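Annex B, item 7. Sequence and structure tokens for protein A, then protein B.
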Amino acid sequence: MTAPILTTTAALEAFCDRAARAAFITLDTEFVREKTYRPVLCLLQMALPTGTEPDAVLVDPLAGDIDLKSPPALARGRGLPDYGHAGGQDIE
């Protein structure tokens, strides 16, 4: 099964609403660093425990109609144990 690619704020917010009820969230980000003055976020990967539909999504932060305020709001103050890959780069 291929993870859906979210390209709108509404789709991202719907996933984050489901994620707020999950036991944990996993997160990974990818950046373009070549030929830029600063890293440019080009992919956000989020997953929930198996059994949640969909349990994994890809977020296209470069899509024209997407606001990325939902994932940080989800991570703040909800008491969820979150997991990431190379988290130092994600915080950057």
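Protein B:
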Amino acid sequence: MGPLRADILDAELPPTVAAPSIARGLVRSAGSELSRRSLEDAQLLVSELVSNLLVAAIEPHPLHLRMQTHGSLSLAVEELPLGTDVMNSAVRPGPIARTVTDPPSTFPWGCGLVAALADAWGVSARDGRTSAWAELRLHP
């Protein structure tokens, strides 16, 4: 396994039932340098993060997905206000936020799965947007 880039995925997902599948495919493509175990865990985590945000959303919003590596793998999914251009948005810059809060009670059983798989994770709400992140130790 060669060295991984810091930012290996930055994409917008539609607010539809297809979003978890699209996210898994993007992670699979972007994570081709990961071990099989890390890639499988990352795909499951991103699927749950995306699904949880879609289920908890009051109204459908596009989602911003980011995957980074810094000795571990970080996944973040954030609701975007309608009409936001991800590549030119203030939502995009900076490291993935690490705000840990109790998950909203509307989040489904997937949070238990995220907690079991991830080494660290969190959910936050700010400026009317909900975001969720998970960090995963990379396996050889």
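Comment on protein B: Strands lie at 7-13, 63-69, 72-79, 120-126, 129-137.
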